[in-house]
Amino acid sequence: MKKFKLIQQLSLITIALFLVTSCNDDDEEAQAEFSPNQNVLEIAGRIPQLSLLADAIAVFPDSVLVEPLSNPEANFTVFAPNNETFGVVLDTLGLDLDPRMRDDLDTELLLDIVLYHVHGSAALSSSNLSSSLTMLNGETTSVSTQGAGSINDIDFSFVDNIGTNGIVHIINGTLLPEAAVEALEATVEEEE
After folding, report:
1. d(Cα 159, Cα 171) in Å, to the nearest integer?
2. DSSP one-letter code for 172
3. Three-state secondary-structure class, residue 12
4. Is residue 166 within 8 Å of residue 39, measured between CB atoms?
């Protein structure tokens, strides 16, 4: 019964994410906002439809995420979830990014989710994305270069936004690390 509830909740999240992304008109706006003279963090911070990811990164002290993702000597690939899908996941998991709510924020879970969107080297969608990538949280993702490409069956909407220290691929969903799946299971158990 618990597994059925979890599957049901994950299905509802998937349907909500599909509906949100299929109605998204901001695709051209995302393409126009990025500049190759920016690092991956600046790219994510300047594209309006990625503002929730930038807000999530800003939750942490600069030394945790801002400095590493801004390091000109580093190379990263960021699979950036758009606001609509990231917002649904954050709301479902009760992760409120409002500064007034920071005392109640599960920063460990939020950090795990953010790090699950970052790979530790630059990977262009067309040439050097392998079939699996280990993300900065230590978990592995499944990548496909068929069509526009996808990661964990989440389609890319814009690829190869090249920055000074890596690449940002905008994705039409939010990657869920194991800790997020476990948190969803706990939410389902609490509702029973």
Report:
1. 8
2. S
3. helix
4. yes
In angstroms, rounded to a whole number, what is the distance separating the alpha carbons of residues 8 and 92?
A: 13
* Contact (Cβ atoms closer than 8 angstroms) between residue 145 and residue 125: yes
Contacts of 21 (CB under 8 A, 6+ apart): 82, 84, 85, 157, 172, 173
68 burial via Cβ count (<10 Å: 0-12, 13-18, 19+): middle
pLDDT of residue 35: 56
DSSP run (H or E) holding 178: helix 178-191
d(C-alpha 10, C-alpha 29), whole Å: 29
Cβ density class 24-54: b for 16+ within 10 Å, e for less: bebeeebeebbeeebbbbbbbbebebbbbbb
61 — phi, psi (to 5°)?
-55, 150
pLDDT tens sequence for the chain (192 residues): 555 444 444 444 444 444 344 444 444 444 444 456 899 999 998 899 999 999 999 999 999 999 999 999 999 999 999 999 999 999 999 999 988 888 889 999 999 999 999 999 988 876 667 789 999 999 999 998 888 889 999 999 988 889 999 999 999 999 999 999 999 888 777 776
CA-to-CA separations, 121 to 37, 174, 185, in angstroms, rounded: 18, 20, 32
Model pTM score: 0.81
Burial 166-192 (b: 16+ CB within 10 A, else e): bbbbbbbbbbbbebbeebbbeebeeee
